[in-house]
Amino acid sequence: MKTAREIAEVRRIVSEARAAGRTVGFVPTMGGLHEGHLSLIDAARAECSFTVASIFLNPTQFAPSEDLSTYPRSIEADLDACRTRGVDLVFIPEVETMHRGDALTTVTVSRLTETLCGRSRPTHFAGVCTVVTKLLNIVAPDKAFFGQKDYQQLAIIAQMVCDLDIPVEVKSCPIVREPDGLAMSTRNQRLSPEARLQATVLHRALTLAREQIRQSRPPASEVIASARAVIQNEAPAGELDYLQIVDPKTLRDVETTDDGVLIAVAVKFPGARLIDNMLVDSTAPRQ
Amino acid sequence: MKTAREIAEVRRIVSEARAAGRTVGFVPTMGGLHEGHLSLIDAARAECSFTVASIFLNPTQFAPSEDLSTYPRSIEADLDACRTRGVDLVFIPEVETMHRGDALTTVTVSRLTETLCGRSRPTHFAGVCTVVTKLLNIVAPDKAFFGQKDYQQLAIIAQMVCDLDIPVEVKSCPIVREPDGLAMSTRNQRLSPEARLQATVLHRALTLAREQIRQSRPPASEVIASARAVIQNEAPAGELDYLQIVDPKTLRDVETTDDGVLIAVAVKFPGARLIDNMLVDSTAPRQ
């Protein structure tokens, strides 16, 4: 496994792989790798013959009040995991390499960024879109792999790639969960033992909401009310940021649950704000 | 010479050229080709072995009040000129191909876009940056050629390409002028005979300002005052939009003219708003 800190080095190594006839799969990460990230690497290796991961804790997607300083860092363990999992090249740039002091350019996506996480993190997705554009321009992969845990991020990046004609295929990969249902997240390790126990409520609330919808397709407001109650009752350490039922394509709030919907939730625990989501397919049979 | 209307077709033709070992030069245009554009094609042919031009009158860089509907179109003459000048591929997309109705993504550059033309055209450069990003992603050239007549546009695109790590070299090409000094522009043909005569005042004012600076390095405000007077006296049909002396890198207004400066001017004539500019090198000897 190769590692590179400089942009020119990444370009050279990827060009050589491409010249040797290999297809390039890319998994961008912020480090703190867990099985969720590693499943993306597996997906990249299954579809491409040269796998690039990046480990870059991007400061521009954190607001000053957010958890950049306490975000878990584990670069040695991350590199070991990449090596074990068969990554060919890891790009580990310095902040100054990705964000030169005189940069003035921003990539923004409207509408999709103005709901869900965008409401409490209004500058977050511009940071994400700009850095992902840069990473895609540096690595120039055939396919890039993103997890559905960050469903909104995935939708925004797919939109951006399409809108800007970035020549890459965006691949969407399923959420990986702990045995008790908690969606894997680097931030989970920031939870106290008490909050960690309560954090399973996100998945429980989503599952309950999904079952309700599957059974009787009630108005979204009813489903939201009962899922909110579950979270408020079972996670006293958590503060609900949002629980929304939206159109999976537009991310607009829906009133009815007859068609396919996305149920998305964010809860702030001391030490970590957690998000999770679940798709409910319109074609699934009522139970 | 090949022509392509579809993105996939451009990608296929450029890939084939690249696979055949050719380097790709790109000249984006809005059509209405004149010797200024053709000099960019010549520059591309001199440096690259496969030359792509695009002809796309991009609506998103025009405000509703601006001259999109009267902007000169001459597609058959443009294609003839490209053929004669040795272009290998012309990309002539439909508006719907470049701007799908559901697009939500914008590329913006701050600061550099907030002065000069950006003051009277506040949405212009976001339209330019977004469409140029798309064109560069579609054509994927080694080098892209832009004229210095649109100095601010060139500075903004160079900044954007650097900031987003777009893998292309931006080449800056000199202004081409009519025998009487008027900078070539597609919009010149929109001028009445009277305005066409008066329009030479832009170049005259810039040249006078440059001579003043070379001779005595006066404060910028003095140079601006006398250049403004020239325009107001000699072009009664014109309305001065701006005349600024700025730092050629930051485009910020300067107070002194000791270092290298850019003198930039815009004048609105009935039918056409004209721009022009001149660099004054700090190292040029005083005369």
Gist of the model:
2 copies of one chain form a homodimer. Chain A is built from 10 helices and 10 strands.
Overview of this protein structure:
2 copies of one chain form a homodimer. The first copy, chain A, has 287 residues and is an alpha/beta fold. Chain A has 10 helices and 10 strands. Chain A has helices at 7-19, 35-47, 75-85, 95-98, 117-120, 124-139, 151-163, 193-198, 201-216, 220-234; strands at 2-4, 24-29, 50-55, 89-91, 105-109, 143-147, 169-173, 239-246, 261-269, 272-280. In chain A, helix 6 (124-139) crosses helix 7. The longest helix of chain A is centred in the middle third of the chain and has 16 residues, at 124-139. Chain A is globular. Strand 5 (105-109) of chain A pairs antiparallel with strand 5 (105-109) of chain B.
Q: What tags apply to this protein structure?
A:
homodimer; 287 residues; alpha/beta; Rossmann fold; Pantoate--beta-alanine Ligase, Chain: A,domain 2; 2 domains; three-stranded antiparallel β-sheet
How would the blueprint of this fold be written?
The structure is a homodimer of 287-residue chains.
Chain A: E1 2-4, H1 7-19, E2 24-29, H2 35-47, E3 50-55, H3 75-85, E4 89-91, H4 95-98, E5 105-109, H5 117-120, H6 124-139, E6 143-147, H7 151-163, E7 169-173, H8 193-198, H9 201-216, H10 220-234, E8 239-246, E9 261-269, E10 272-280
Parallel strand pairs in A: 1-4, 2-3, 2-6, 3-4, 6-7
Antiparallel strand pairs in A: 8-9, 9-10
Helix pairs in contact in A: 6-7, 9-10
